[in-house]
Amino acid sequence: MAYVTAESLQTLKQINALIYPTDHIQHESLFRNVLEIPELTCIAFFDCFPCGYIICEKVHNRDGSSHLSIVTIGVTPDRRGRGIGGALLDRAIKTAKKMADVKFLTAVVPANDDFAERLFKRQQFKQCGSLTEEYGAYQGHIFSKSTGN
């Protein structure tokens, strides 16, 4: 695994296009801030080929603490089921625990994505809510995990 750099940003975009070829997640805004805190975006490799990624964002809470929001995570279809998604989540969890002000991690898992839901549950994330109608057509479940900080 490697953190995203200016040199590898195009690789990140290419992996994203493989994983989400027609999805809304293609928007350039997804990649706008990935270089600000490099350890929050990571590319996974399998047999030396890029095959997955995770993008997190540090969010400041009202009480002065922070949390990491997992903006997106994905693994190319040909490499799924090999522990890559779990390794990416492990990296995000370890990164969050190193940041003293980060109290928890969050993620929104799309409705009917049983594979992603199982992945988060295996990493001891707890479902703590669902998206309401105010989010429009996008439906999903909110997951959270404490860092212990």
From TrEMBL:
Regions that span the bilayer: none
InterPro entries named in the record: Acyl_CoA_acyltransferase, GNAT_dom
GO MF annotation: an example: acyltransferase activity, transferring groups other than amino-acyl groups
Cited Gene3D superfamilies: 3.40.630.30
Domain of life per record: Eukaryota
Domain N-acetyltransferase: 1-148
Any single Pfam family the record assigns to this protein: Acetyltransf_1
Name of this chain's protein: N-acetyltransferase domain-containing protein
High-level lineage: Eukaryota, Metazoa, Ecdysozoa, Nematoda, Chromadorea
